């Protein structure tokens, strides 16, 4: 159990366009979903935390108008990178926690975004 | 002081040896601790959680927690080349935020 999927796994887009990444919990209802970004050879950086039906809580330094998060249901959260720029190129990973184990995060496989 | 600190490595051990990975944290009221494994180009995978002082064993993995010293470690017995990865320590802080260490890169040489 505790499988999280992400789509797409890889995406290449042109500078100035927007990209949407989906995160789904496949076999459980996710109390909370998290979005992380990871640059090469660096650790995970938490971008935002979202609970179903609520506005996401963004970490300091993360632009909420640029990284739009929608958590419409207990199994789906989306991250939209708006007006993407090359410096947004990164590995974006979502995670989710179950109601029964709110601190154990299960990660999706990640989305590699390249902005040209 | 960083909230969660790990030696970045690389840590290199021969196949069959015990690999010891260490992590310290700054928030004294932290109660929940996790070890994740991340292969290159992949997302992290939860391998161990520990909440109480002492040792917790799961197969070849043993997590050790010492809250007084604010120290948590992961031992991997009989290390295999397939254990080569970056190991991330994660801590739930007193405000319920989870923070990850920078990770320790482990290489197990055949």
Tell me the number of strands of chain A: 11
Q: Radius of gyration of chain B, rounded?
A: 13 Å
Q: Mean of residue pLDDT of chain A? A: 91
Encode the helix/strand succession of chain A as letters.
Answer: EEEEEEEEEEE
Shape of chain A: globular
| Biggest interface and residues each | A-B, 14 and 19 residues
Portion of residues in beta strands of chain A equals: over 45%
Multimeric status of the protein: heterodimer
C-alpha termini separation of chain B: 37 Å
Structural class of chain B: mainly beta
Main sheet attributes: strand count, strand direction, barrel closure of chain B: 6 strands, mixed
Strand content of chain B: over 45%
Mean pLDDT figure of chain B: 93
Summarize the structure.
Helix content of chain A is 0%, strand content 58%.
What can you tell me about this protein's structure?
The complex is a heterodimer of chains A (116) and B (110). Chain A is mostly beta strands. In chain A, 0% of the residues lie in helices and 58% in strands. Chain A has strands at 4-7, 10-13, 19-25, 30-38, 45-51, 57-58, 67-73, 76-81, 90-98, 101-107, 111-115. In chain A, the strands form two sheets. In chain A, strands 2, 4, 5, 6, 9, 10 and 11 form a seven-stranded mixed sheet that branches. In chain A, strands 1-3-8-7 form a four-stranded antiparallel sheet, with no helix packed on it. The N and C termini of chain A lie far apart (37 Å). Chain B is built from no helices and eleven strands. Chain B has strands at 4-6, 11-14, 19-25, 32-38, 45-50, 54-58, 61-66, 71-76, 85-92, 98-100, 104-109. In chain B, the strands form two sheets. In chain B, strands 2, 4, 5, 9, 10 and 11 form a six-stranded mixed sheet that branches. In chain B, a hairpin with a 2-residue loop joins β6 and β7 (61-66). Chain B starts with a strand and ends with a strand. The chains are: A mainly beta (116), B mainly beta (110). The A-B interface holds A 34, 42-44, 46, 93, 103-110 and B 32, 34, 36, 42-46, 49, 88, 90, 92, 97-103.
């Amino acid at each position: 159990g505790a499988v999280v999927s992400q789509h797409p796994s890889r995406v290449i887009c042109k500078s100035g366009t927007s990209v949407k990444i989906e995160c789904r919990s496949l076999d459980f209802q996710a109390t909370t979903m998290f979005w992380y970004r990871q640059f090469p050879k660096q650790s995970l950086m938490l971008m935002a935390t979202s609970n179903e039906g609520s506005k996401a809580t963004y970490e300091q330094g993360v632009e909420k108008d640029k990284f739009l998060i929608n958590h419409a249901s207990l199994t789906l959260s989306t991250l939209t990178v708006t007006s993407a720029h090359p410096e947004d190129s990164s590995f974006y990973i979502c995670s989710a926690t179950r109601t029964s184990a709110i601190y154990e995060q299960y990660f999706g496989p990640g989305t590699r975004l390249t902005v040209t | 002081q960083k909230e969660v600190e790990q030696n970045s490595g690389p840590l290199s051990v021969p196949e069959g040896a015990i690999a010891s990975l260490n992590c310290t944290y700054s928030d004294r009221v932290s109660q929940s601790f996790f070890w994740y494994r991340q292969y290159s180009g992949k997302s992290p995978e939860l391998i161990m959680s520990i909440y109480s002082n002492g040792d917790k064993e799961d197969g070849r993995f043993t997590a050790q927690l010492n809250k007084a010293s604010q120290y948590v470690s992961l031992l991997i017995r009989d290390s295999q080349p397939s254990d080569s990865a970056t190991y991330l320590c994660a801590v739930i802080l007193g405000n319920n935020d989870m923070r990850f260490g920078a990770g320790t890169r482990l290489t197990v040489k055949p």
